[in-house]
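Now read this:
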Amino acid sequence: MCGRRQLPVVGQPQPERADAARNRQKIIDVAARMIESRGADQLSLDEVAKEACVGVGTVYRRFGDRAGLVWALIDERERRFQEAFMSGPPPLGPGAAPAERVGAFLAGLVDRVVSQLDLFLLVELGSPKSRFGGPYRVHHTHLATLLAEARPDADPHFLADALLAPLNAHLISYQRDERGLTVEEIKAGVASIAAAVTARPAP
């Protein structure tokens, strides 16, 4: 990931200095190894700093908190997902009706969360700034833009939050583990909500 810009795709910061990029990559590599060997819930920024041979302050300044470090770990898959809904083929990408794109985006986001569920569970334990910044902000902006076209009579920003709420990792984990729902059943339920939200009210 050295040399690549960070999330979100929209509004990127300036490129990093070479030494900062090297330290960032060391920290990410160490964190990835720790998660692989111990699990995501055992990730400690202090231990990551010690193993990466950098100061604890460097880790906190660079990533803010544990959730920020986890977002860096899931950066590549998130980047590909963002590219797909911004410029990929329809219905996820441009070219389909707004309501159809909303449904395709939410289905894709379910798959996105499930693919790295342990890391998303960890992100959701972070501060609201971490949880609702970064990719969430990009997802929200994208949804709100589509909803403004599909439902010009409603507040697209509120509806975007409402549609994203059921896609949190803890709820998806509970639905799968406790209720026995499959990913396809979860996606079908989300599709029903999206259809209801994007349907224009009768005159």
Q: What stands out?
A: Residues 18-63 form a domain with the Arc Repressor Mutant, subunit A fold (CATH 1.10.10.60). The chain has two domains: 18-63, 75-198. The chain is about 70% helix and 0% strand.
